[in-house]
Amino acid sequence: MYTILIVEDDERIADKLRSAISKYDFNVRITEDFSRVMDIFADTKPDLVLLDVNLPKFDGFYWCRQIRTQSHCPIIFISARDSGMDQIMALENGADDYITKPFDMELVLAKVRSHLRRAVGAYASGQEEEHTVENAGLLLYPERFLVTYGDRSAELTQKEAALLTMLMEKDGRVVSRERLLDLMWEDQHFIDDNTLNVYITRVRRKLRELGAGDLIETVRGAGYRFMTDMEPPL
Predict the structure, then answer these.
(1) pLDDT of 206-223, one tens digit each?
(2) What is the pTM of this model?
(3) Which of 62, 58, 91 is nearest to 74 (CA)?
């Protein structure tokens, strides 16, 4: 049974989410003490977190960053703040998805099931033999959400790892935006067009911080491709 942690200070909304999600045989825990979110997270060990932005003590962006220091579990924001900048900030701080209030409960349930399938369910990579991808001096561990370059390494989110895996495995061939969106989000109808740009920017930044340079090229009007002719690290 999968466990969902709800971090939402509106008791009515939290109870509504718990009631709906519990019907599908999920174990659901609601956060009540917002000064102990990380203690509750560690105790619960959730498979997925539903997180509000406006919270007592610290906002959801802060708690998202804290969770990311310990876990790669899917984090879905549910918030009344519907600006594009709020959604970008959520992604920049490590979230996997963003739903605005008032929300359609069926959409919430669909996204919960989708992210769980990709993280720990039917679409998750098997653990029997670790899959790795090598290209242009990078060594990517998709199941561990880790990429190395020489003696340096960087942690990735689940979606960053999926994006980089696709680009590296295509070995210099262009991957369309539509294909990447389809890979990362089953229900891309609900994804803002800028969301993919944010993930590309985040992956590029992490590769540059490793010293690998600019390995992802934008092909205007077509998509993106991974540059395969870079020199490996010494």
Answers:
(1) 999 999 989 999 999 899
(2) 0.67
(3) 91
